[in-house]
Fold this sequence. Notes:
The chain is α/β, with parallel strands linked by helices. The chain folds into 3 domains: 5-116, Rossmann fold (3-Layer(aba) Sandwich), CATH 3.40.50.300; 121-188, Helicase, Ruva Protein, domain 3 (Orthogonal Bundle); 189-325, Zinc Finger, Delta Prime, domain 3 (Up-down Bundle). It has helices spanning 12-28, 43-51, 74-85, 102-110, 124-136, 144-154, 161-172, 180-187, 195-203, 207-218, 223-240, 248-254, 262-293, 302-323; strands spanning 5-8, 32-36, 60-64, 91-96, 114-116, 141-142, 177-178. The strands form 2 sheets. Strands 2-3-4-1-5 form a 5-stranded parallel sheet, sandwiched between helices. It has a two-stranded parallel ribbon with strand order 6-7. The radius of gyration is 23 Å and the shape is globular. The mean pLDDT is 87.
Amino acid sequence: MPERAYLVKGDPGLVADALHGLLGELRAAGLDVEELGGDDLSFGSVVEACNAYFLGGSDKAVVVRDAQDLLRGVDDLRRLSTYLADPNPQTSLVLVLSGDNKKLVESARKAGATILDPSPPGQTRARSGWLDHRLKAAPVRLDRQAAARLGSHLGEDLGRLPGILEVLAAAHGEGATITADDLDPVLGEEGGGAPWDLTDAIDSGDAGAALHHLHRLLHARHPFVVLASLWGHYQRILRLEGSGARNEAQAAAVLSIKGSTFPARKALSQAGRLGASGVARAVELLHRADLDLRGLRTYGPGRDSDLITLEVLVARLARLSATRR
């Protein structure tokens, strides 16, 4: 049974993961999710949205990110407290904090809201236990050396953990055993690199090499620039799939490529390997990543979220290629 009010706070990376899990639970319980935002948003309009009748007739969840920014005066907190004391039984209000706000947290706690704080404890031993617990519940299994290496690498920055685990699951499959060597492409970072190094690694199905080249590209390129190069690569493949082109010259003609036809040969070869269903799946993954980079789903603050979004995309595209070889 969903609660009438939630407040999610703590480490930004872990908050994003906790919120994603909470919204998944609320949707599974039959609630429609309504996200509020905009410069004109206030706690007054939040309360109005919570009390508004939903045309579909079902219960709903009202989500407010960066809720601390709405506290512009004493009246705002009073308005929220009044609502929380007698909430709409058809609405679950989800307040998400970036950072902390003691007044808002205390007000929500006094009103009986469920407080979700996924942040790890401060003590070293307790943090180690927290990490062990998270790894046991992870979609992949890290061997002892890999777990120790991951813990040492993350140090105090445990907010990166959910994104790293998701990338590993995308690259190796859920339930896979991860060694220390498997972590290198996810943890390492170098500068430089060329777009074709990334697409060649993806086409060969080598997720580790693909992630390595992705990190090198992102050292000097904006995430949307990298995504655009991937879109261009798969658009060529999409145009060739089902085109009837049987050789490099015909493929170059379909793609209107002049000069070197080597890119046409690579695209034709990959189109043949992926087939119609594989190409469709790749386009779906690219479209989802495009939306996530625009804010549909976040893994934490700014650049970190963009990095994880592209890591998950590249790992899934490489795995798709590997299954079609």
